[in-house]
Amino acid sequence: MQADLKIALAQLNYTVGDFQYNSAKIVKTIEEAKKQGVELLVFSELAITGYPPLDLLTKESFVNAAIEAIHKIALCCNGIAAIVGGPSINPDAKGKPLYNSAWFLNEGKARALVHKTLLPTYDVFDEYRYFQPNREFNILNYKGKRIAITICEDIWDDRPVEKSFDRNHLYTLSPMQKLAALKPDFAINIAASPFSHNQHELRRRVVCKKAETYRMPLYYVNQTGANSELIFDGGSMHIGADGNIVHRLDFFKEELYIVGEAIRKEGTNSPEPSASRFPLAIELIHKALVCGIHDYFSKSGLKTAVLGLSGGLDSAIVAVLAAEALGAENVHGILMPSQYSSDHSITDAEDLVKNTGLSSEIIPIKDIYYSYEKALKNTFDGRAADVTEENIQARIRGTLLMAYSNKFGHILLNTSNKSEAAVGYGTLYGDMAGGLSVLADVYKSDLYKLAAYINRDKELIPANTISKPPSAELRPDQKDSDSLPDYNLLDAILFRYIEQNLSCKEIINEGFDAATVERVITMVDRNEHKRFQSPPVLRVSGKAFGFGRRIPIVAKHKLY
Question: Around Cβ 107, how many Cβ atoms within 10 Å?
Fold first, then answer.
């Protein structure tokens, strides 16, 4: 009987557009796998370009460089075969110019191509903008084995349509069903599936269901690392023909997993990683944010960060995450107390600096604010103080932080959370300034859970920072609750409106106060212009602000 194929899965971290780096990483892994006697090595979707390449795919020189890099990698594939994700040219004069392909490399050449069938065009995905969908289904024959190759979305054919549409499924075609009819021995899915807080569980269900339905082993290869807003958690899997996990690769870690005699092996349940008393989702969000910061800086050639330290929870969490991602010596905190800052805000920020080892500086803004007040005195004569004066303080702080950033070459980390970003509780060109928004996809109520996780072994975030009522401290005795509903209530409404896409009426029907729901949704809709000018947001939920949620700025909003 034909001996089983020795297969390996390569879960790697790629950089968009860096063909030299990506190629070197792929070749190094091929050489390592050769030494282990691997016969078939599988890399992830668009591995050669990194994901997502976006409109770089419209540049012919970019695509040609990617294809040239793949052919060079093929020269190393002697005594081993590799499946590498990358773009390929559509030879038909009609249709989109490219395919999203799996290249099969063997005996020094690119031997075959398999193209992606289901092209996602929802949320952060816009693949039909660039790629032609596949409509031909073939099996790859290699060393006596019949292999069904699919690419990411191809196994999500039963994905439901977003809420509010009377549809059961987004797609009318099942690539796995088509391929299963050709009697393959096993299936491979190469993916670039970004992280969101429950995506690992959704993936597990989908991949295991496909293996069980078609009674064949399935090898799922994802990538790890972050590119701009998108964060990839890895979690590649080997699934047995019974639909159980044989092995799951680590989250947020590069890894080469050698299957060995995997085809004959039936699966056993693999336990989820444990974070003791903390939910897995919080542990993974923590890892995702650290990964997002680290790769945003390292892949951009950046090293150091600056942020404002208010003594509040949001800036404290960003400071800790940045210190973990970049090293405390590369993170600089600026305290900018005003006449409205409480004593505990200053001491809490100073305690955070001591706990984390950050460098810090204090720049009081009281006198700067008074100079603005004096300059505007005649112009504002006869008008009562309002949010204008509060915003001036925020913009003074933003100006100082950007000056510090410019002078010393640091990147300003924005500390706004998702609750604030949703309802516009922030100042344009003030506390909304920054080069990267770390927490704008994490609701305020979840930040308390994240803070508890951060402090699980040692108090990094001062206890008083966590326990005190949130406040912008832009006027005497100010609290967030003066302007907003309680965060638990606010976030529950926001989650239903943003992530679940429920209407105002549907949310009210779940038992929420009608006036509160209408007020919150009105705030969300009226502040699209602010979010449009926000820094890029690290995506950790199923619906982040940014290019995954496209709402017009100029529109007559009703409470739909």
Answer: 11
Residues above pLDDT 70, as percent of the chain? 93
| Mean pLDDT score, 52-66 | 98
Give the N- to C-terminal CA distance of the chain in Å, as an integer.
Answer: 64
Alpha-carbon span 243 to 188, nearest angstrom: 14
The residues that are catalytic are 45, 116, 152
Measured CA to CA, the distance from residue 251 to residue 11 in angstroms comes to 10
Distances (CA, A) of 461 to 315, 353, 388, 488: 10, 9, 32, 21
Q: Residues of 208-225 as b/e, b for ≥16 C-beta within 10 angstroms?
A: bebbbebebbbbbbbbbb
DSSP structural state of residue 481: G
Sheet containing strand 331-335, strands side by side: 359-362, 331-335, 305-308, 411-414, 436-437
Q: Which helix (H) or strand (E) holds 460?
A: none
Contact 88, 64 (CB under 8 A): no
pLDDT digits 0-9 by tens, 510-543: 999 999 999 999 999 999 999 999 999 999 999 9
Arithmetic mean of pLDDT, 460-474: 86
Q: CB neighbours of 493 closer than 8 A, spacing ≥ 6?
A: 485, 507, 512, 516, 517, 520, 521
pLDDT at residue 278, as a whole number: 62
279 by DSSP, 3-state: which? coil
Give this prediction's pTM: 0.93
Q: Beta partners for 333?
A: 307, 360
Angstrom distances, CA of residue 204 to CA of 146, 200, 285, 468, 520: 24, 6, 18, 39, 35
Exposed/middle/buried for 360, CB within 10 Å: 0-12, 13-18, 19+?
Answer: middle
pLDDT at 260: 63
* Higher pLDDT among residues 3 and 112, named by residue: 112
Tens digits of residue pLDDT in 421-439: 999 999 999 999 999 999 9
Q: For residue 137, which of 155, 110, 115, 156 has the smallest C-alpha distance? A: 115
| DSSP 8-state code for residue 251 | B
Return the percentage of the chain with pLDDT > 90, whole number. Answer: 86
